[in-house]
Each structure stands twice: as C-alpha cells, then as structure tokens.
Amino acid sequence: MSTPTLEVTGLAYAYPDGHQALFGVDLHVHPGERVALLGPNGAGKTTLVLHLNGILAAGAGSVSVSGLPVVKENLKEVRRRVGIVFQDPDDQLFLGSVRQDVAFGPANLGLRGPELDRRVMEALDKVGMAAYADRPPHHLSFGQRRRVAVATVLAMEPEILVLDEPSSNLDPASRRELAEILRSLDVTVLMVTHDLPYALELCPRSVVLAEGTVVADGPTYDLLTDEALMAAHRLELPVGFDPDRIGSLPA
C-alpha cells in the first residue's frame, strides 16, 4: 500500500477557552482519492482542516502529509503540499490582477521568470480562466473568483487539495463547471461540504465527523442511503433528491 497523502492519527484539540473540538480523530487519504468530509455544524470539520497545514497545532496525536509530519519546522513544505481553498474566494484574492494572485504563492517559494509564468498559466488553464489572467479579480463573477482561488492553490503544485464548501453560493451552471474541473484534476482531494449531492457526484468515499470524532467512513452512496446514520447526525438530502440518479460511484 502506498504512503497516504494525508494521515491523521489520534488527533485531539481543545481551544484556549477549554472547548474540546476533536477527540482522537483517525483519517487517511491515499494518492488520487477524492474524499468528502461530512458532518453537522459544530462537528469539528473546520478545526480538523486547520490542522492539515499547521494553522492549528495538535494537542495530541499527529498529522502527516506524504510521510512529512505537520510540525513547526516543516510548515513551509507542508503548506506547499496541502492547498486549502477557503469558502470565500475573496479571502485568497487580494492583488490587482488574476495573474498576480495566482503568482503570489509560487513567487514566495522563489520562482521567477519563465517558470513562474508557466506555473501561473498552467493553473489558470486547468480551471478555464487563462483568458482572464490580466483582469482584476473584483471584476469577475463569484463562480469565476472561486475558480481563480482554486488556481492560486494549484500553482503551488500541491499533493492534496482541500476544499471548504466548494459549491456554496454558486448558481447551477457554475456548480456544474466547478465539478467538471475538479473531476479533471490529477490531485488528491479532501472536500468539506454540506452539499450531499455534490459529495455523491464527486467523491466515491466519505467520512462523517460528529462531535469531534469519526463516526462513519465508507462509500458515499452507502453512507447517504443509511437512514439511521443520516438521522443520527443531522444529515439530510434535499427534498426529492434520489441518490440513485447518480448511483454508487466506483472507489
């Protein structure tokens, strides 16, 4: 078995106010997998994600990325390997042009000249935004800005792409376009989402987090059609949605 791209072992974390957010989380994601992280509000999903590139430091347990421990002395390399796309693209787009925003991360790694240009345009091409390289981000639609936010992370050539609610606030066409982009990428994906149909469409495997622990891990279709599991953890499919329309995706 290959080394997991992401390995979380016994991860526990309490905030400074004493609130215990994670209680011994175990999670592994292997190269090329697309995994959805599901759970109700307050389950600990965001807290878990903030440990993956060292924004938060584990109170107990460990996190590693392709065998590299997520500890202070490794943070520069960890943050190259783990690309997090936040829910609000404006948290990641702050410069005068799309090109500048996408170049920001690789330039901080020391890339210059033709290699930096190549990284930027390849990343923009992967998300269908190469024609917008010289546009100011604030002139783009919300869906376009989200695609550029994905490109800012892809330009770092990460080993795992972590997406926080990627379909939120997207119109149906933008939602479909983003799904097509995510399916086309040759990168390991961990997707945090409340959009259960999107999880079923994109992620063959899902993990359910509740009250700071992993309560289920398996094929997305199996979890979403487990009525007892869904009810116990406040997970609901949209009214009228039939999971068999998408069916059980291959692992």
UniProtKB/TrEMBL annotation:
<dbReference type="InterPro" id="IPR015856">
    <property type="entry name" value="ABC_transpr_CbiO/EcfA_su"/>
</dbReference>
<comment type="similarity">
    <text>Belongs to the ABC transporter superfamily.</text>
</comment>
<protein>
    <recommendedName>
        <fullName>ABC transporter ATP-binding protein</fullName>
    </recommendedName>
</protein>
<dbReference type="GO" id="GO:0005524">
    <property type="term" value="F:ATP binding"/>
</dbReference>
<dbReference type="InterPro" id="IPR017871">
    <property type="entry name" value="ABC_transporter-like_CS"/>
</dbReference>
<dbReference type="InterPro" id="IPR027417">
    <property type="entry name" value="P-loop_NTPase"/>
</dbReference>
<keyword id="KW-1003">Cell membrane</keyword>
<keyword id="KW-0813">Transport</keyword>
<dbReference type="GO" id="GO:0016887">
    <property type="term" value="F:ATP hydrolysis activity"/>
</dbReference>
<dbReference type="InterPro" id="IPR050095">
    <property type="entry name" value="ECF_ABC_transporter_ATP-bd"/>
</dbReference>
<keyword id="KW-0472">Membrane</keyword>
<dbReference type="GO" id="GO:0043190">
    <property type="term" value="C:ATP-binding cassette (ABC) transporter complex"/>
</dbReference>
<dbReference type="InterPro" id="IPR005876">
    <property type="entry name" value="Co_trans_ATP-bd"/>
</dbReference>
<comment type="function">
    <text>Part of an ABC transporter complex. Responsible for energy coupling to the transport system.</text>
</comment>
<feature type="domain" description="ABC transporter">
    <location>
        <begin position="6"/>
        <end position="236"/>
    </location>
</feature>
<dbReference type="InterPro" id="IPR003593">
    <property type="entry name" value="AAA+_ATPase"/>
</dbReference>
<dbReference type="Pfam" id="PF00005">
    <property type="entry name" value="ABC_tran"/>
</dbReference>
<dbReference type="InterPro" id="IPR003439">
    <property type="entry name" value="ABC_transporter-like_ATP-bd"/>
</dbReference>
<dbReference type="GO" id="GO:0006824">
    <property type="term" value="P:cobalt ion transport"/>
</dbReference>
<dbReference type="GO" id="GO:0042626">
    <property type="term" value="F:ATPase-coupled transmembrane transporter activity"/>
</dbReference>
<keyword id="KW-0547">Nucleotide-binding</keyword>
<comment type="function">
    <text>Probably part of an ABC transporter complex. Responsible for energy coupling to the transport system.</text>
</comment>
<keyword id="KW-0067">ATP-binding</keyword>
<keyword id="KW-1278">Translocase</keyword>
